[in-house]
Design a protein that fits this description.
Elements: H1 14-68, E1 81-83, E2 99-104, E3 111-115, E4 118-121, E5 135-136, E6 156-162, E7 169-174, E8 180-183, H2 191-198, E9 202-207, E10 212-217, E11 219-221, E12 227-230, E13 252-264, E14 272-279, E15 282-290, E16 292-303, E17 306-310, E18 321-331, E19 344-347, E20 350-353, E21 361-369
């Protein structure tokens, strides 16, 4: 006989099971929502950090390159130099111009535009464009399939001056009737190590602060206080083995380099900022900052002490350019902005339209004066 009020042993009732399942589902949904939210926060924070790192890297690399353009020892290369190099082109080995540039003027394919002030990007990490006429002035023949190629819709900036990582070396012996002079090398000037790394022939400059001469370094020997720099004639070499003007003891010698900055197709599904250096008459490009989607450049042309900011196609005299303003559109990874965002950005007056995706984007601009121009 079963006593009244005593419950029979057994499992959970259906109602209890339903309640437990409902509570479990709510807990799981809450955990998933928290996980998704945290993942979105992480993606956004990581993208913001990556974009900030890109800003810092761009500034650290390009700013000193712009400031140092046109430096040739202790004097400026602009207007004051004599170029002995055999067969310099309008761009290649033209060290009398500290800065030159090319303005994207609207191209077909994944990037299109009606002119210099409109760029539409319909696909990330577009293929590079080697058609010279898609830039103004037309891209130099050393670019394109024979050298570097930029993504369409992006400007190209070229800087000429002292080779990065070097410092002037003092001349301690020079004979105007000889094809060489002698300099003192040390750990600061890095003449021997630099020339050994880049190989010869390579451009160089000698300056006494009042005048300078640009030539092709055809030979280097010695060490310490007796490093001989030879500037022989021939090709590749110089039009003459003799310097056209006399330079006194104490003049300064530096190796020179041309470098170009541009945006090109990168790895990992993102465009990248590239730096190309001229080596043996050919451009060698290297990606330096990933996630740079577009680059626009304006040039400060001296106008009675003030700057008129012009695109490359409107610059009539490059020796009058005393400053450079560069704008970048930098993107994060896919998923870094899941709520979407702006699809048009103003980059130095150019309206850049981007695909509707989930990338976080940011415009970064820098303005630098060229310290070594003679206006």
């Amino acid at each position: 006989m079963i006593r009244a009020g005593v419950r029979r042993a057994g499992g959970f009732t259906l109602i209890e099971v339903m309640i437990a399942l409902t509570l479990g589902i709510l807990v799981v949904l809450g955990i998933v929502a928290i996980f998704v939210a945290m993942k979105q926060i992480y993606s956004s924070s990581h993208a913001q950090s990556s974009i900030q790192n890109a800003d810092n890297a761009i500034s650290a690399i390009i700013s000193p390159a712009v400031r140092g353009a046109g430096f040739g020892g202790c004097g400026t290369l602009t207007k004051a130099s004599v170029n002995l190099i055999s067969g310099p082109g309008p761009l290649v080995n033209n060290y009398q111009l500290a800065v030159q540039g090319y303005d994207a003027t609207g191209t077909p394919g994944t990037v299109s535009g009606t002119g210099a002030n409109t760029v539409t990007i319909t696909a990330d990490n577009a293929a590079n464009d080697a058609t010279a006429s898609h830039w103004t002035p037309a891209m130099d023949a050393s670019f394109g399939s024979a050298g570097i190629a930029a993504e369409p819709g992006n400007d190209v900036l070229v800087l000429s001056g002292e080779m990065p990582g070097t410092a002037p070396a003092g001349v301690n012996s020079i004979d105007p009737t000889a094809d060489h002079f002698v300099v003192t090398d040390n750990s600061v000037s890095n003449v021997v190590s630099t020339l050994s790394n880049v190989g010869l022939p390579t451009p160089g400059s000698i300056s006494d602060c009042g005048k300078s001469a640009v030539f092709m370094i055809t030979g280097q020997s010695g060490s310490g206080s007796a490093v001989t720099i030879t500037h022989g004639a021939g090709a590749p070499g110089n039009t003459s083995s003799l310097l056209p003007v006399k330079f006194p003891l104490g003049s300064q010698f530096v190796p020179l380099q041309q470098q170009a900055f541009y945006v090109a197709q990168g790895a990992g599904g993102q465009s990248a900022l590239y730096r190309a250096t001229l080596v043996g008459g050919a451009w060698v490009g290297t990606p330096i900052v990933p996630g740079v989607e577009n680059m626009q450049v304006l040039y400060g042309v001296n106008n009675a002490g003030n700057y008129r900011w012009l695109p490359a196609g409107a610059v009539a005299d490059w020796t009058m350019v005393g400053a450079v303003r560069i704008g970048f559109l930098i993107e994060g990874a896919l998923g870094s902005n899941p709520t979407g965002g702006a699809t048009t950005f103003n980059v130095l007056g150019t309206t850049v339209t981007v695909p509707t995706d989930t990338r976080l984007r940011h415009v970064f601009e820098i303005t630098e004066q060229i310290r070594n121009v003679s206006l």
